[in-house]
Specification:
Blueprint (H helix, E strand, L loop, with lengths): L8 E5 L3 H12 L5 E6 L2 H11 L3 E5 L7 H11 L4 E7 L4 H10 L3 E5 L3 H16 L4 H6 L7 E7 L6 H15 L4 E5 L7 H4 L20 H5 L3 E2 L5 E4 L12 H11 L5 E5 L6 H8 L3 E7 L3 H14 L9 E8 L7 H8 L5 E4 L3 H8 L3 H4 L4 H14 L8
Parallel strand pairs: 1-2, 1-3, 3-4, 4-5, 6-10, 6-11, 7-9, 7-10, 11-12, 12-13
Antiparallel strand pairs: 8-9
Helix pairs in contact: 2-3, 3-4, 7-16, 10-11
Length: 393
């Protein structure tokens, strides 16, 4: 904890009185820090760290009872928020640095310590501590905000994958405002912008040449915020080569999105190449869409399922979704389940109003919130939200 006036506090541990006094003067030199206390041996260093909880402790390597390495290791276990700095004699060799890493030391200073060297070390450690008050730290340390990449795809086009992806993202955005991104990964004839009536979006392909410098702020400039609060990112606005989004581009995009968003819904084309396989191997959930209208569609979905199962996505992360179910279907759920050798995870009924909504660029989830279609997709969203956190494959 900081002192009452907010200044970071430093604990000094050294057996020689002269060194303790010298370090005290250096710490207090510019008035930015306060002294929490002093210790004359390793045992006192540990006990005072636990009792006083200073931001930093300066530990001389040759302390009695427990040496500097042993004291730092115990402090790291008993008071991990206290950052330990070792003050040693001479430049550290590889063995010393390995011991320092094992002991949890944050920095190494050579005795006699100079004021600039000490000031730099303290400022660096203060900056680390200040990260606790940033939005990034809050997000990264909150398990409820574990970023989840949800890939929606199928064995062929024209089966409603984009409708499922858009509706799923909308349902998630209603629960997590400002925390959901819909990423249209189609580099040829993507439909997300049209379905949401988004005009003139900035395509991600424009950023491909600058991927090494891309950060979240730059990426945000290529995203459109829909009126519902959902963020939308499209790959292209005109047909591009299939691999226009490279693996490194996809990787950089995901890494930046995961810094700020909890759910990243990816509308992925039914084409297996390096980038789509990368996306599959890094997804939290795979929503595999098929229908009951004809056997070729189901067999294509089963082929894709067989390819990605295990090597790219574990079985427990795959949601098998039967879409556009109607009384005119030529197959039954039993037919699909028998072919896949597993139950269908969700059934999404057909709704004749969907085509009209798509043509008008009106989100179906918003226009027909009580539709059985929306209820079914919302159930998928709930299942993904409550899916056990097991990490990527």
């Amino acid at each position: 904890m900081s002192s009452r006036n907010g200044k970071p506090r430093v604990l000094i541990a050294a057996k020689e009185r002269g060194l303790r006094d010298q370090l005290r003067q250096l710490v207090l030199a510019d008035g930015s820090y306060e002294i929490a206390g002093t210790a004359v041996d390793g045992q006192e260093a540990v006990q005072l760290s636990v009792l006083l909880r200073p931001e930093v402790i300066l530990i001389k390597s040759d302390l009695p009872i427990f040496n500097g390495f042993e004291a730092a290791e115990m402090i790291g276990l008993a008071a991990p928020e206290v950052r330990s700095v070792l003050v040693g004699d001479g430049q550290p060799d590889a063995q010393i640095l390995r011991k320092a890493m094992r002991s949890g030391l944050r920095a190494y200073l050579t005795s006699p310590v100079s004021e600039p060297e000490l000031r730099e070390a303290l400022e660096n450690l203060k900056n680390i501590g200040d990260r606790r008050f940033t939005p990034e730290y809050e997000t990264a340390t909150d398990p409820s905000q574990l970023p989840k990449v949800i890939v929606v795809t199928g064995g062929k086009g024209g089966i409603g994958k984009s409708t499922i992806a858009t509706s799923l993202a909308m349902c998630l955005a209603q629960r997590f405002p400002g925390k959901v991104v819909l990423f249209d990964m189609y580099t040829q004839f993507g439909d997300i912008a049209t379905m949401l009536n988004i005009t003139s979006p900035k395509p991600l392909c424009e950023l491909v040449q600058a991927m090494d410098e891309m950060d979240l702020e730059m990426l945000e400039g290529y995203m459109v915020e829909h009126e519902t609060g959902l963020k939308v990112l499209v790959s292209t606005t005109n047909a591009q080569p299939i691999d226009a989004i490279s693996v490194s581009s996809a990787e950089s995009t995901l890494h930046n999105l995961k810094r700020a968003y909890t759910y990243i819904v990816v509308d992925m084309p039914p084409i297996l190449h390096a980038t789509t396989l990368y996306m599959l191997s890094h997804c939290y959930s795979l929503v595999l869409v098929t229908n009951l209208f004809d056997m070729p569609t189901v067999r294509d979905a089963k082929e894709l399922y067989s390819i990605v199962l295990g090597d790219y996505v574990p079985e427990e992360k795959i949601f098998l979704v039967a879409n556009r179910i109607s009384k005119y279907d030529r197959l039954t759920l039993s037919d699909v389940e028998r072919l896949f050798g597993r139950p269908v995870s969700a059934q999404v009924p057909n709704d004749r109003r969907l085509v009209s909504a798509v043509n008008q660029g009106v989100p179906f989830v918003k226009a027909y919130s009580r539709s059985p279609l929306v209820t079914a997709v919302d159930k998928i969203a709930q299942d993904i939200i409550h899916q056990e956190a097991v990490g990527v494959n």
